[in-house]
Amino acid sequence: MAASFSFAAQSILGSPVSRVSNRSCGASQFFPVKYVPRVGRNAGLPVRCMAEEEQKEQEQPQPMPTARKAKVSTKFSDVLAFSGPAPERINGRLAMIGFVAAMAVELAKGQDVFAQISDGGVTWFIGTSVVLSLASLIPLFKGVSVESKSEGLMTSDAELWNGRVAMLGLIALALTEYVKGGALV
Fold first, then answer.
1. Which of 21, 42, 53, 151 lies at a C-alpha separation of 20 to 30 Å from 32?
2. Residue 90 near residue 132, CB atoms below 8 Å
3. What is this structure's pTM?
4. Which domain of life does the UniProt lineage start with (predicted)?
5. Cα separation of 65 and 39, whole Å?
6. What burial class does residue 166 get, using C-beta atoms within 10 Å of its C-beta: 0-12 exposed, 13-18 middle, 19+ buried?
7. Cα separation of 161 and 95, whole Å?
8. Cα(153)–Cα(46) distance, rounded to whole angstroms?
9. DSSP readout, 16-54?
10. Average pLDDT in the chain
11. What's the rounded Cα separation, in Å, for the pair 12 and 24?
12. With 80 as the cut, is the pLDDT of residue 109 above it?
């Protein structure tokens, strides 16, 4: 270990980068590398690369495009199109509320989904569907995009995925209760 330390110390202290000789008095002084200025033979001569100049000439700075909001179509056929912003969002929102309501009624009364539907659930479903559909469509017909109001954790993609999971959950709940022959809980 002592030999390796001695070798490392000699290589650091004996290198030309870290040793500056004072020729006037004939003695050598050792400085840490960060204090020794390294001066090349032609230090004052600037060197330019011609390739960089050609690239700069070819790449003229383009003006930054201004961030414009894309115009959102407010036509009825565009909003309610198969790939439009409304259908999947409305169905997802209805599924989220339906799944939570079905589970809440099942926990409170012990009724399965089919018993809930036959026990006045159809009128609640129709009323909720109309209110949520209108509440979802009015901003879209005014030209507000779905992505404009999403930031942070509450994004439009998160709403889509939550709606898809709720749709699958509602179907799984109904199938499980059908196969089981009664309420899940």
1. 42
2. yes
3. 0.56
4. Eukaryota
5. 45
6. buried
7. 12
8. 52
9. TTTEEEETTTTEEEE--GGGS----TTTT-----HHHHH
10. 75
11. 24
12. yes
Phi, psi of 84 (to 5 degrees): -75, 175
Q: Which of 28, 29, 20, 135 is nearest to 86 (CA)?
A: 135
Across the chain, how many H-helices and E-strands are there? Answer: 7, 2
What's the token pair of residue 43? 């230090």
Work out the angle at residue 99's Cα, subtended by the Cα atoms of residues 171 and 135, and round it to the nearest 5 degrees.
115
Distances (CA, A) of 14 to 24, 28, 38: 20, 11, 16
| Token pair in block for residue 118 | 């036959």
Amino acid of residue 35: Y
Percentage of the chain lying above the pLDDT 90 cut: 22
On the question of pLDDT at 18 being above 50, the answer is no
49 pLDDT above the threshold of 70: no
Phi, psi dihedral angles at 169 (to 5 degrees): -65, -40
Measured between its terminal Cα atoms, the distance across the chain in Å is 72
